[in-house]
Amino acid sequence: MKHFLYLTNDKLITLIWKSGRMVSRDVFQVGEANSKQFRDYLLKHREVPTYLVADLIEEDFRLDTMPHLRGGDADTVLSRKLGQLYRATTFSHAIVQDREPEGRRDDKVLYHAITNPDLLTPWLAALETSEVPVAGVYSSPVLSVHLLNQLDTIPNHALVVTIVPDFGLRQTYFQNKLIKFSRLTQIIFDEGRSVGSLIAAEISRTWQYLDSLRYFSNGEALEVCVLVHERDRPTIAEAFRSFPLLKCRFLDITEIANKIKLKQVPTTSHAEEVLAHLYAQNRLENHFAQPDTTRFAVFRNARIALYAVTASALAAGSGAAGFNLYQASQISKEIDRRDTTTLGLQSEYQAISNSLRELKLASGTVRDSSIFFNSQIRPQPAAPGDYLRELSKAIVDAPKVRLLQVVWAVGNDANATPFFTPMPTPPILDVISETKADTSSPSAVAAILGSSAGGIAATQAAVSDLNPAMPGNKFHIGVIEFAMISFDGDFRKLLSEIEVFKNRFNEIPNIKATIVTLPLNLDTTATLKSGAKKDTVDAREARFVIKVVSTVVGT
User: Considering the entire predicted model, what is its pTM?
Assistant: First the structure.
């Protein structure tokens, strides 16, 4: 919605433009700017952006040149020139149109102003008192170029003629679509002459004036474009026959209204509604309004911008909230779906469990496999601490026995012997044994292994080949090498003491001890030899090896 105030010398026409049509029209006479009726009218439309369009006789137009400048320098020169030309008014404006084709190529400037500010001041004061958002104050002749742009072909030299409501004739000259001159003439009715002849006579005088200023040469023609209603066209066309030098084009106001999509077609030749509609469709440049005049429009635009930012933030927040709700809904659906799937799986699992409970053992294979797994395969803890503490009880009470080394391992085969290397220093004996038996049989291998400390490793290899142990940790297996100190050469006594010492281990619960190597081989295949030793008896010691097997706790 836009609010247009079309000001002439004798009245103010108010037009409310909305959705492509004029929805309201009021007229206020000169002198009613401070009236209660006008103030009440402004209060009803104080939130609508307002455009004051002036179509006055007291508007002056001048053409001049200035050096080609830009930015602040150009603004300064234009402002100074306007101050020199129009000292008595603040309603002035300058338009830089073109540049000179030769020389310094100075800028061509059109200066125009309302020379009688008293025609505008009362209306602007009323608008400011009512805090109406005035977007700008405009010159109707300058803006009438929008009407010229509606022609299918635009002549280089065009005189646009419009009828000002109940007052006179506005004639605006455009050269290459640039305004050069404008004149508002009051039509004084004469009973002896028709309105058409009065209009034609005024246009003829304007044509003569422009020709005297040499705006166009002999080979160029001025095309007069008159905006009239079809009802008034015959009268004006008949009058133009008396002026054959005028090339006239009549613009039907109804056709123009339809072309610019003005929904409510004017019923007279008055052009204010068509012009206001054209101005509403285009972005207008302010001509005469000062910053104090437009400050309420600035406030309104700032308020709208804040509303827009707030609405955008709310929309973004609503969108984000909606998206979060959508995601929450999707997550909830996914949870419900997974709960349903879980319940189905649980039901299936329960059914399988119940069916398994009802099954009976089909054969002893499963039982034997379970027993085999628990006894042979399933790993068991095998820490040697408790095992060694039990062995130390038997050793501590034997002062004549010296511990040389302990080899410990775990396994599932109690008959297996861990890898064992005897101490390098051989025992000092008067009698040694040598084995001369066949080594092809296991008993022969055992006899050979028993003949010396080095036979332990061979025994281990033979046992491993004949009966390899399964990996596991069902038994603690220890191979312990001892030395009987202060051996005096009495083998009978020595063997008896070793046997007693071995039985100390067997007295411990869950432990079985066997002799692996004796100081003397007593096998029937061994041969005894005697020889003198240089060492003293006190220095002699007899070494032997005992294997101690204990079951791992928990198996």
Answer: 0.60
